[in-house]
Amino acid sequence: MRTLLIIALLTTTGLFAQRGERVRAFKTAHITEALSLTPAEAEKFWPIYNKHEKEIRELKMSERQMMRRMDTELEGMTEAEADQLLAQSLDHKTQMLAHYKALVTELKPVLPNKKILLLQKAEEDFKRMLLNRMNQRKKKENRP
User: Fold this and answer.
1) 18 and 1: one domain?
2) Do residues 53 and 105 both lie within one domain?
3) pTM passes above 0.85
4) 3-state helix, strand, coil in the chain (%, to 5)
5) Which domain holds residue 65?
6) pLDDT tens digits, 95-105
7) What burial class does residue 69 get, using C-beta atoms within 10 Å of its C-beta: 0-12 exposed, 13-18 middle, 19+ buried?
8) What is the C-alpha to C-alpha distance for residues 74 and 71, in angstroms, rounded to an integer?
9) 40 domain-assigned
10) I need a labelling partner for 8 at 20 to 30 A (CA). Which of 17, 68, 101, 142 fits?
């Protein structure tokens, strides 16, 4: 509760000017609260998590570019181009799994296993909450 109040105060003062920073701040608060991190755990957890999150975010951006390419070019692709794009897609998924495994490996000495599982749940819950908010905004904007 206290964490959410701090985040609300920071956002109302305009400290988080960019949308991406605001979303990351809310995600940080959500994860901290969901995992009930102690100060000692948080001190060790966040550098590890942030490093892997940055790498995963970059992979996701690259994957989105591939998906856009598929949306626009798939119809006219040759089999060879499709094969290359498919291999690239599989490589991205393999890299994502490798980053997740590395994250779990690095977190094991820092957090109990239950909190690592809670992290996975907290990330999914946050993603769902974010999508719901985006959908609600779209509905409000589309109302006559």
Assistant:
1) yes
2) yes
3) no
4) 85, 0, 15
5) 46-111
6) 999 999 999 99
7) middle
8) 6
9) no
10) 142
